[in-house]
Design a protein that fits this description.
There is one protein chain. By secondary structure, the protein is an all-alpha fold. It has one domain. The protein has 9 helices and no strands. The chain is globular. The N and C termini lie far apart (64 Å).
Length: 240
Amino acid sequence: MQWLQDMWTKEGTGIPKDAPKKTGLALFAAIFAREWWEMVKLNILFLLTAMFVVTLPAALVAMARVCVAFTEDRNTYLLRDFLEALVRYFWRATAWGVAFAAVFGIWGYAVIAYAASARDNLLLTVPLTISLVMIVFVTVVACHLLVLMVMRDLPALKMLRLAALASIVRPLPALGALAFAIALWLVHIAFYPVSVFMPATVNFSLGMFAVTFAVHRAATMVLATQQDSEPHARNASQSV
């Protein structure tokens, strides 16, 4: 049974230290080629833990933590890292999940209401457009906040501010990753039933990895800005 234990607990594969450094889509493809089997197992773990619905936000955060490790080329012990993150971030993830669900509900209702009324009054296309833009922006903020949460422990308001800043500075990579995740599900629908096993094998974990990979740079940038500002704030308070 050692092989079964090693399947879930052994250290992930690394890369040669003398290998040329890759960036962008080439790096994304290289990581996927190296970690694809880990992503399949990660997808299974997510499905098993998210099926209770109440654990869905925490399962997303746990999956994001593993995907950040993939992106940063850190050693991963899949089962241990996933379960530790699931427990550690459960309450925070649940609170953020409820908050974002409420925000999406409000703006979603606004979109439906304005879309129904805009057919009779073209002036309502303006608030309809604003509502659509806000849904997209909140989605991008949620992606950045998800990654920031597993990269650094910060107060809620500060984390939200950094997520919003990252979303303003670099929104396009997140939008591209979301488009990629949507494309995975469109492929699943278009080629069904041939693609019947896609959600069970790779759709969730690969989509999360795409989002994590895309927003990681912006998250790193805003966290570096946060670190640089803290010494100045301490020096100012000491001088006073």
